[in-house]
Structure formats: structure tokens, C-alpha cells
Design a protein that fits this description.
It is built from 6 helices and 8 strands. A hairpin with a 5-residue loop joins strand 5 and strand 6. The longest helix is centred in the first third of the chain and has 26 residues. The protein folds into 2 domains: 69 residues, no CATH class; 147 residues, Mannose-Binding Protein A, Chain A. With 241 residues, it is α+β, with helices and mostly antiparallel strands.
Length: 241
């Protein structure tokens, strides 16, 4: 009687599958050993970066997780400083970087004026007498008054006081103007800190009527007075940013 060591078909299939799997593992390992760079790059591109915070808590410049991120992202730059020569608030009478003098706040604007050396003595109009209304009657802001007067052409133009300020080039600025009644009054209040004022009347750009404009009477407690436009009085220009 012959005895055959015959395996069942199912057992043979299982053994074959195990052998194939083993061959696949060994072959894959051999492929990886022969191509380490390919596998490493694939692994790096597939793993999210978890080591991109350095010991100081700064985010580092990492494109993938290589455990070798050393360059921190630079901090955001500080805001730029204000351009030189701006009229920034400071102690009244303080000298700005451009050489102008801080005079205080008027109607929400920080005003700067010139040193005394830039004053002048002139008439409000061209020196002509008579009655002629200009419409430069803003009591709070001298800019619209000056803008009106510097281009006005009539029997009383040029309007010397306003034109002097409009043409002034000082401290790198050409936007000076003849202050309004209120602006000139604020300058009077702060006159001691600002310095350099004469015991005189100072023109404002605010017109009273066809014959008169407002002056600030420095010797007489800064009273606002009506002055003939053809009289010579002091002029101190102002500007703001």
C-alpha cells in the first residue's frame, strides 16, 4: 500500500501567498536601500512640519520636516518714522526737526510758526485805501482766507500780508499761510513760550469789512481789533500738516 504525502490544495495556496509576501518585503527593502534619496524625499514631502518652532518660540523657515530648521522668520519691521519736518505735537515753543516752532492746537490742527527772523512788516492789502470786500472772513482757519487773497485780482491786490506767507519757503515747506483771527489769538496766548514777538499789532487773515481786517493787539492783552487794511503791521506765518 503506497502512502502519498500529498498536501491539500488550500494549504498549498496559503504557503505560496506567504512566500510571495516575504519576497515582496525583501524586494521592497532592497529597493529602498538602493534608492535612499527617493524614499527620504517622499517621506519628507508627506509629513507635515512639526519642528518649525525654535527654542525661543519663533517660527522657523521650514518647507518640510527635516529636523534642521535654524533660520527664524525675521520680525515685522517697525512702522516708519514720520517724515522729517512735520508739525508734530510737542511742548509749546519746542523746535521741530525742521526748525519751525510748535505753537499749540487750533481747531484740531497742530500749528507751527516760524522764528522771529521770518516775520515781516507790511500792509494787509496793497496799501490802497477805500472800501473793497474780499470775502476772506473765516475766523477759525486762515488757509481759505489766504487761498482767496493770494489769487484775488482787483484794485487792492496784491494782498501783501497773505501773499508774503503764501510765498514763504522756510524749513522745507511752502504751505505757510496768514493765520486767522482765532489762530493768531492762540499764538498770542502762547507767546512767551514761542518767543520773539514785538510789542505790536499782528495781522490776521480775517477780514472785518471792506476797509478793515482783524489784528491781535499784543501790547494790549491780545485784544482783537479792527485795523485799516492799508496800515503796516507785523506778520507771523503758520502751517500745519
Amino acid at each position: 500500500m503506497k502512502i502519498f504525502n500529498k498536501k491539500k490544495t488550500g494549504q498549498t495556496i496559503v504557503e505560496f501567498a506567504l512566500i510571495a509576501a516575504l519576497v515582496g518585503i525583501v524586494g521592497g527593502w532592497a529597493f529602498i536601500k538602493m534608492n535612499p534619496g527617493l524614499f527620504r524625499n517622499y517621506f519628507k514631502s508627506s509629513v507635515s512640519s512639526t519642528n518649525n518652532i525654535d527654542s525661543n518660540g519663533q517660527m522657523k523657515l521650514c518647507t518640510y520636516d527635516d529636523n534642521n530648521c535654524t533660520a527664524p522668520i525675521p520680525p515685522a519691521p517697525p512702522p516708519p518714522p514720520p517724515p522729517p519736518g512735520t508739525c508734530d505735537p510737542m511742548a509749546i515753543g519746542g523746535v521741530e526737526p525742521d526748525g519751525s516752532v510748535y505753537t499749540g492746537n487750533a481747531s484740531g490742527n497742530d500749528l507751527c510758526t516760524t522764528p522771529a527772523a521770518n516775520e515781516t512788516l507790511t500792509t494787509w492789502n496793497n496799501g490802497a485805501g477805500g472800501n473793497l470786500v474780499t470775502g476772506a472772513n473765516n475766523a477759525l482757519n486762515g488757509i481759505p482766507n489766504t487761498n482767496t487773497l493770494k489769487v484775488l485780482v482787483n484794485a487792492h491786490s496784491p494782498y501783501q500780508a497773505a501773499l508774503y506767507c503764501a510765498n514763504l519757503n522756510f524749513a522745507g515747506h511752502t504751505d505757510w499761510y496768514l493765520p486767522s483771527q482765532v489762530e493768531m489769538s492762540i499764538i498770542y496766548v502762547n507767546r512767551a513760550a514761542i518767543g520773539g514777538f514785538s510789542p505790536s499789532h499782528y495781522w490776521s487773515s480775517t477780514e472785518v469789512d471792506g476797509e478793515h481786517s482783524c489784528v491781535i493787539d499784543f501790547p494790549n492783552f491780545g485784544n482783537v481789533q479792527s485795523e485799516d487794511k492799508d496800515n503796516n503791521q507785523r506778520v507771523r506765518c503758520v502751517r500745519h500738516d
